[in-house]
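so my prof wants the structure for this chain in the C-alpha cells format not the other one, which i didnt know existed until like an hour ago. anyway here's the sequence
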Amino acid sequence: MDGGNHSVVSQFVFLGLTNSKEIQLLLLLFSSVLYVASMAGNILIVFSVTIDPHLHSPMYFLLASLSVIDMGACSIATPKMIYDLFRTRKVISFEGCITQIFFIHLIGGVEMVLLVAMAFDRYVAICKPLHYQTIMSPRMCMVFLAAAWALGVSHSLFQLAFIINLPFCGPNVLDSFYCDLPRLLRLACRDTYRLQFMVTVNSGFICVGSFFILVISYVFILFTVWKHSSGGSSKAVSTLSAHITVVILFFGPTMFVYTWPHPNSQMDKFLALFDAVLTPFLNPVIYTFRNKEMKAAMKRVCKQLVIYWKIS
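here's what i got, hopefully its the right format
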C-alpha cells in the first residue's frame, strides 16, 4: 500500500466538543457571537488603517496585516463547527479535511512571521528611533509580508507532504471538531509513528523557535526601555504589553497542542476552541484598548460611516 494513495475513505466523522445538548446550545451562542465580533473588529481595524492617514505607519500596516490573518484564522474551522452544532452526524469530505489542514498551517505560519515582524518594528522604534524611518521603510514592510506568506505556504505544503500519499482505508472518526494533522495521521492504514514525530518536530520547532525569538526580543526591548527610562517609557511599555499578550495568546495553545505528549486529552479541544474562536476576538480588543491612536481613528471612521449612511 506504499505505492500511492489508495484511500477509500471519502469523508471523516467529527465527534465534536460535547454530546450535551445544553452545552452545545451554549457553545453555539458563544461561538456565533465571538465569530461575528471577531470579523467586525478586525474589519474595522483594517478599514481604519487603510483610510486614516494618522495610521499610515509600519506598525499599523503590520497590525492590519495581522487582522487580515485573524479573519482567516477564525474562518477556517469556526463556521463549520457552528454548523455542526445543529447536526447529529458531523462529517467533512476527505478533500475538505485536507483543505482545512492546509489553511490552518498556512495561517499559523504567516501569523508567526508577522508577530516576529511586529517585535522587530518595536525594537527599531524603541532602540534605534533615529533610524526608524530608514530601517522600517515601505519596502521592508513588504519584505516581511512576502516572507510571512512564503513561510506559511512552504510550511503548509511540507505538512501536506506527510499525508498526501497515505492510505486511509478504514477508521474515519476524529475526536475533534476540525481536521487536526496529528489525529489524522493516526487513522492511516499503516504505521505513521515516524511521520507523527516529524510533524511534531516540524511544527514544534517553528513554533517554539519563533516564540523564543520573540521572548528574547521583548526582554531586550524592556531592558532598553528600563535603562533609558523617560516620559515616553509608559507608552512604550503599554504598547509592548499589548504585543506580549497577543504573543502569549497565540503561542500558548499552539505549543501545547504540538508538544504535549498526550494529544487525545480534552484539553486539546479546549485549546483548539480557544485558538480558533477567542484569540481572533481578543487580538483587536487588546490592540484597540491599549492604543489611543487606534481608538481615536476607529471613532473617526465610525463617525464617517454614520454620516455616509445618513447622506445616502
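also thought this was worth mentioning. The chain is about 75% helix and 5% strand.
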